[in-house]
Design brief:
28 strands; alpha+beta; four-stranded mixed beta sheet; rod-shaped
């Protein structure tokens, strides 16, 4: 049921009293026989009496009559005296006083307070619309919450007021307007399509190396929650700031001039590499990257991205139509970078191709009391990085991204060195002569000394290097 309100507005028409005072002063007699105003016989009446009789007749016409303004299920009902006639009674009585006879009376229905009532109806039915919205929560899983859309609603107040006035002039008893529903500017489904997963990539690291694991978590936290506007370029260095001890970074292995050495911020390159691969899979435009001098164990050749100080950065541009959201988090010993943005019909795959290997130089040997391998030898690598663009209904497109060369690693061990005069190996037990020349340690002419077996893994555990 709608609301129903009756307006009873009692008016004292001061202008009416003043007009009759004027008429009475100018006309002291009575109206001639056969005089009527608006069909009401006012013969032989004074002007005030005639006016009162015409008013009474008009009020009688409106007795029991109502005028209703409806908006949806809400309504306002008007009755007398708010519902009244607007007439030209004063000019009609003047004409009757001058010439008598049948004098017409122009009249029109009016409602006092109509504009305010229409405004109240419109305000009561108004509802503000709301577009659906995605709330980015980079620390949570899933990283988005969605606020549903809501339809707006309104009544055209100006149009309803005009329609009410026209209905009153036509003698009608009701006017109606229906609320207009306004669909939201963005539906929830549209919003969900704007934050689809575009690309994600994970690498693993050795949690037992506490300083390095700490640096990885610190850099990942600096990246997490980044929002890249359409057309904006991301800079790893700008986002993380300097990786210094003052910023909380610790010493861990880094690659410096082809060697693994201790340095502040070791492990950060694994974060930049993980993000680089996620950006490739998300279709970002890579504008700056730098390979390591040595191959690293946490990603395939030609898919690493080294950062160092202010000179070496990782940069990529969001060439899409909407913002891209970055989530970068550590879970246990796994680092994952994910990019979300407007849904795309294109997906990407990566392919690393090793085109050649470079054997390491002869291992280096240092004297020590105990036998120990300090650094395992490792082949160098020449490689290519390919990106495969895939779209439904089209053939795959292979894109050569880069060619790289990674230096070999020279093995390093320590232990007892051969005694003077020995060709190598252990010294003979006391009292036992060394083998004669040409026996034992001698090799056939032209035969190379056997090379130690080279493991196919880097010196540092998976995730090693910066």
């Amino acid at each position: 049921m709608g609301r129903e309100r009756k307006r009873r507005i009692r008016l004292l028409p001061a202008a009416l009293a003043a007009g009759f005072l004027f008429l009475a002063c100018g006309f002291a007699g009575v109206l001639p026989r056969g005089t009527s105003v608006g069909g009401v016989d006012v013969s032989r009446l004074t002007l005030p009496a005639a006016a009162a009789k015409v008013r009474a007749a008009l009020e009688g016409e409106l007795a029991g009559r109502t005028f209703t303004v409806c908006a949806g299920e809400d309504r306002v009902v008007f009755g007398p005296p708010a519902l009244h006639y607007e007439t030209d009674l004063y000019p009609a009585l003047q004409a009757a006083a001058r010439k008598g006879g049948a004098v017409p009376l122009r009249k029109r229905q009016r409602v006092a307070g109509l504009e305010g009532a229409v405004r109240g109806l419109c305000d009561g039915l108004f509802r503000q619309g709301r577009a659906a919205r995605a709330v980015f929560r980079p620390q949570e899983d899933p990283p988005f919450a969605f606020e549903p859309a809501a339809e707006g609603r309104y009544v055209d107040g100006a149009a309803l007021l005009r329609a009410a006035e026209a209905a009153l002039a036509a003698g009608e008893r009701e006017v109606r307007a229906e609320p207009v529903n306004v669909p939201p500017s963005r539906s929830e489904e549209e919003v969900r399509r704007s934050v689809r997963l575009l690309g994600t990539f994970s690498t693993t690291f050795n949690g037992g190396n506490a300083p390095r694991a700490h640096n990885i978590a610190l850099a990942a936290a600096a990246l997490n929650g980044c929002i890249l506007a359409a057309g904006e370029t991301f800079s790893f260095n700008a986002r993380t700031g300097p990786r210094t001890a003052e910023q909380g970074y610790r010493e861990a292995p880094v690659i410096l001039e082809g060697e693994f050495v201790a340095g502040v911020g070791g492990g950060v390159c694994q974060v930049s590499t993980t993000l680089y691969n996620a950006a490739l899979l998300a279709g970002m435009q890579i504008s700056e990257y730098h390979p390591h001098s040595l191959a690293v164990g946490y990603v395939e050749p030609s898919f690493d991205a080294m950062v160092s100080g202010a000179a070496c950065d990782l940069k990529f541009r969001n060439a899409g139509a909407g913002p891209v959201y970055l989530v970068c988090r550590v879970n246990g010993q796994t680092l994952t970078a994910s990019l979300y943005g407007p849904q795309s019909a294109v997906t990407y795959l990566r392919e690393s191709v090793v085109t050649a290997t470079v054997p390491p130089p002869e291992p280096e040997r240092r004297e020590a009391a105990e036998e120990r391998e300090l650094r395992a030898p490792k082949d160098g690598v020449k490689s290519e990085g390919w990106l495969i663009r895939r779209e439904e209904g089209k053939p795959d497109e292979r894109i050569l991204l880069r060619r790289d060369s990674y230096a070999p690693v020279r093995g390093l061990s320590e232990g007892p060195l051969p005694r003077e005069g020995q060709a190598g190996g252990e010294a003979p037990p006391e009292g036992q002569n060394a083998p004669p020349a040409g026996q034992g340690t001698a090799r056939p002419e032209g035969q190379a000394a056997p090379r130690p077996r080279r493991p196919r893994f880097p010196f540092f555990p998976r995730g090693g290097g910066r």
